[in-house]
Amino acid sequence: MVLEGNPEVGAPRTSDLQHPGNKGSCVLSSPGEDAQPGEEPIKYGELIILGHPQGSQSKGPSPHRAFCGRRRSRLALSRRPHANGVKPDVMHHISTPLVSKALSNRGQHSISYTLSRSHSVIVEYTHDSDTDMFQIGRSTENMIDFVVTDTSPGGGATEGPSAQSTISRYACRILCDRRPPYTARIYAAGFDASSNIFLGERAAKWRTPDGLMDGLTTNGVLVMHPAGGFSEDSAPGVWREISVCGNVYTLRDSRSAQQRGKLVENESNVLQDGSLIDLCGATLLWRTPAGLLRAPTLKQLEAQRQEANAARPQCPVGLSTLAFPSPARGRTAPDKQQPWVYVRCGHVHGYHGWGCRRERGPQERECPLCRLVGPYVPLWLGQEAGLCLDPGPPSHAFAPCGHVCSEKTARYWAQTPLPHGTHAFHAACPFCGAWLTGEHGCVRLIFQGPLD
């Protein structure tokens, strides 16, 4: 999966001025509420793609925007120069054949609920000077801030016309308060080029007890807030579905079922540090500025790599010195010093060609130290710091991909089920997206020090 857009979203762009009702062109902000020239804009938080290496990019700039940069795996949401948020205003009951005429004003944001062939409800939205809106989806149109494509298990974006995406063109929107504490809220569905959201006759929709309308998108927007925050004491939370109006529901029987789940009144759509957002084909992690201050930095990860290499771990059989490669080299073919691990037992070796057990599978090897048979893979240090719960030493590896991180980070992600398909869940490596295997999904690494 790939997000396409600015690494720091919130700067003005050409489309902000050309598209009516788009990107803060409705009403100017009040004096004094924006950052002064030369000041850093207020950051609301960052979205990090699960399953992509840190800083991964496409081969070139997007052809869909003149002011957006390259595709990236991590994007920051910052306060816009002018507010572009919207909020519900007036509700109209109208004959369904007249809906298109009623929605002809592109400057008017609205949500249309088709109840039958003859009856529709249109909820008009008005400008909200207190919020900024950011939209996420598969569409490459200008109103989408982050263009998201599907990620296959094992990492990498599914691209090309032959790949059928399950991500909605206008998947969801995030509204951030422009004033402290800069609360971010998520809503299912995004507004299209005509500033409208359509929920057709077959979409799940209903009247709420207070007489308003609400609904769900076809494949849904799922959110999971971690228990205990995103820290060393975190535990996975419960997956919920977010409605078009931001209400929280239990999951449907299947992803696209027309019958909604039960309303969860004591939970909200407010994003927390470590909240996961699943768009049925792509999963994003939300990090707050305060949470990122607790995360390890790239300099700390590099220092840990150098410290691990300075210990001069050795292959217990070949007695060669092992060393983690520099991230600058990229994940290319392993070199002769690359550490390899038997993922069932955790014993770390240099590469060798013996011990194959092809009768059990092409990747199965027998560890020469403990005789356990299982996958034998190269080790790679995870380089997306925002995915780490703590700055602990790289002591554990995910199975079967071999990405290395701290024990608490490995155990948290190994216990976190990520949505897959219409109703399945699998734990996956956050660095590459590979589904985890084995009893625990990760293994403690056992290094042998130098004999001298």
UniProtKB/TrEMBL annotation:
<comment type="pathway">
    <text>Protein modification; protein ubiquitination.</text>
</comment>
<dbReference type="Pfam" id="PF04710">
    <property type="entry name" value="Pellino_FHA"/>
</dbReference>
<dbReference type="Pfam" id="PF20723">
    <property type="entry name" value="Pellino_RING"/>
</dbReference>
<dbReference type="InterPro" id="IPR048334">
    <property type="entry name" value="Pellino_FHA"/>
</dbReference>
<comment type="similarity">
    <text>Belongs to the pellino family.</text>
</comment>
<comment type="function">
    <text>E3 ubiquitin ligase catalyzing the covalent attachment of ubiquitin moieties onto substrate proteins.</text>
</comment>
<feature type="domain" description="Pellino RING">
    <location>
        <begin position="309"/>
        <end position="452"/>
    </location>
</feature>
<dbReference type="GO" id="GO:0061630">
    <property type="term" value="F:ubiquitin protein ligase activity"/>
</dbReference>
<keyword id="KW-0833">Ubl conjugation pathway</keyword>
<dbReference type="GO" id="GO:0008592">
    <property type="term" value="P:regulation of Toll signaling pathway"/>
</dbReference>
<keyword id="KW-0597">Phosphoprotein</keyword>
<dbReference type="InterPro" id="IPR048335">
    <property type="entry name" value="Pellino_RING"/>
</dbReference>
<keyword id="KW-0808">Transferase</keyword>
<dbReference type="GO" id="GO:0070534">
    <property type="term" value="P:protein K63-linked ubiquitination"/>
</dbReference>
<feature type="region of interest" description="Disordered">
    <location>
        <begin position="1"/>
        <end position="39"/>
    </location>
</feature>
<feature type="domain" description="Pellino FHA">
    <location>
        <begin position="38"/>
        <end position="303"/>
    </location>
</feature>
<protein>
    <recommendedName>
        <fullName>E3 ubiquitin-protein ligase pellino homolog</fullName>
        <ecNumber>2.3.2.27</ecNumber>
    </recommendedName>
</protein>
<dbReference type="InterPro" id="IPR006800">
    <property type="entry name" value="Pellino_fam"/>
</dbReference>
